């Protein structure tokens, strides 16, 4: 009995030193939680069209699982991310959008993690309408 206790104690101590986790006897493994998504999103004009328009554009924080942050439509943006499998380039907005051909380019960027995977994304759109048509709710703020 004493030898069994010594072996188990040594195993637990060694595991703790190596950073491993050992579940308590009789306990069930914890259900894995979905990795959180945390993105800093930015939409900025390439060249400000108006004197009062910031060249830095607008930046919001989006969190998913649970959906939130200061994105005005976090639920729809997170749904778009989930539906695309976390691939920002696969997100599509309204394919029926009718956009003018006025050239007022905007740059969108996303930095952070999607389902625990680091993400850096940036692309340019010819105007806000084409951006919204191509990115769903993600950059609509």
Rg: 23 Å
Straight-line distance between termini: 66 Å
User: What percent of residues adopt helix (DSSP H or I)?
Assistant: 10-25%
What string, H for helix and E for strand, traces the elements in order? HEEEHEEH
Share in β-strands: 25-35%
- How is the biggest beta sheet arranged? 5 strands, antiparallel
Class computed from helices, strands and strand pairing: alpha+beta
How many beta-strand segments? 5
**Low-pLDDT segments, ≥5 res:** 1-24, 26-31
- The coarse overall form would be globular
Number of helices: 3
Mean pLDDT: 78
Read across the widest sheet, the strand sequence of neighbours is: 3-2-1-4-5
Structure commentary:
This protein has 141 residues and is α+β, with helices and mostly antiparallel strands. The chain is 24% helix and 26% strand. The protein has 3 helices and 5 strands. It has helices at 2-17, 74-83, 128-135; strands at residues 37-45, 58-64, 68-69, 106-114, 117-125. A 5-stranded antiparallel sheet has the order 3-2-1-4-5. A hairpin with a 3-residue loop joins strand 2 (58-64) and strand 3. The longest helix is centred in the N-terminal third of the chain and has 16 residues, at 2-17.
């Amino acid at each position: 009995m004493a030898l069994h206790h010594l072996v188990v104690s040594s195993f637990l101590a060694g595991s703790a030193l190596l950073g491993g986790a050992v579940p308590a006897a009789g306990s069930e493994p914890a259900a894995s939680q979905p990795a959180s998504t945390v993105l800093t999103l930015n939409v900025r004009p390439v060249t400000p069209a108006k004197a009062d328009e910031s060249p830095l554009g607008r930046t919001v924080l989006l969190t998913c699982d649970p959906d939130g942050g200061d994105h005005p439509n976090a639920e729809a943006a997170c749904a778009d991310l989930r539906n695309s499998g976390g691939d920002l380039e696969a997100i599509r907005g309204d394919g029926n959008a009718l956009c003018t051909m006025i050239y007022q380019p905007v740059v969108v960027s996303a930095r952070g993690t999607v389902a625990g995977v680091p993400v850096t994304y940036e692309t340019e759109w010819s105007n806000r309408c084409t951006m919204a048509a191509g990115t769903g709710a993600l950059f609509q703020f």
